[in-house]
Design brief:
By secondary structure, the protein is an all-alpha fold. The chain is 67% helix and 0% strand. The protein contains 4 helices and no strands. The longest helix has 62 residues. This is Membrane protein. InterPro entries: DUF1003.
């Protein structure tokens, strides 16, 4: 049952209270040990330990030897078996924790990829709408051609006015000057 946050935590104290080890703490310790077991330093230490054990129990003082070569170094064999029997589960526990982390990482990568895909699709739709909107906007070349057309129409209108003035100089209306002003009579 999950802890309730609206109530204080109940603390049970006994006469012989011991610290509670959570799965995460045990997992961290086992990962540390498993990492150490996979290093060249550990192999070097184990090799030196075994060599020292064999040298001491083979050539050391007879009365100080504690593992007999006659029996195949039984104590050394038992110690190495004990070390291996603890190392294997620790390594498996570390691998399981790594697999859990990898699974969580893969889920996060998948959700990140989904968000990225959604963002990319949104940007593609926005680009398409901008392209459509830009199709309706006048371009520089279009504006220039329209201005040229207007300039040509204005020049044609002025030329037509000049022609009309030359053809009918007796007109009572004041003649228009090229700059748009009127010529005074008389």
């Amino acid at each position: 049952m999950a802890d309730r946050l609206d109530q204080p935590r109940e603390v049970r104290r006994t006469f012989f209270s011991r610290p509670q080890l959570g799965d995460d703490a045990v997992g961290r310790v086992s990962e540390g040990i498993a990492r150490f077991l996979g290093t060249p330093r550990f192999l070097l230490y184990l090799t030196l330990f075994c060599a020292a054990w064999l040298v001491w129990n083979s050539w050391g003082p007879e009365r100080l030897r504690f593992d007999s070569a006659e029996f195949g170094f039984t104590a050394l064999t038992l110690m190495l078996s004990l070390q291996a029997s603890y190392a294997a589960p620790l390594i498996l526990l570390a691998q399981n924790r790594q697999a859990d982390r990898d699974r969580v990482g893969a889920e996060q990568d998948r959700s990140r990829a989904e968000r990225s895909l959604a963002d990319t699709e949104f940007l593609a739709r926005e680009m398409a709408s901008l392209r459509i909107a830009l199709g309706e906007v006048a371009t520089r070349d279009f504006v220039r051609s329209e201005l040229r057309n207007l300039l040509e129409e204005i020049e044609e209108a002025r030329a037509a006015e000049r022609e009309a003035e030359r053809a009918d100089p007796d007109d009572d209306a004041p003649a228009a000057l090229p700059d748009g002003g009127a010529r005074p009579r008389g």
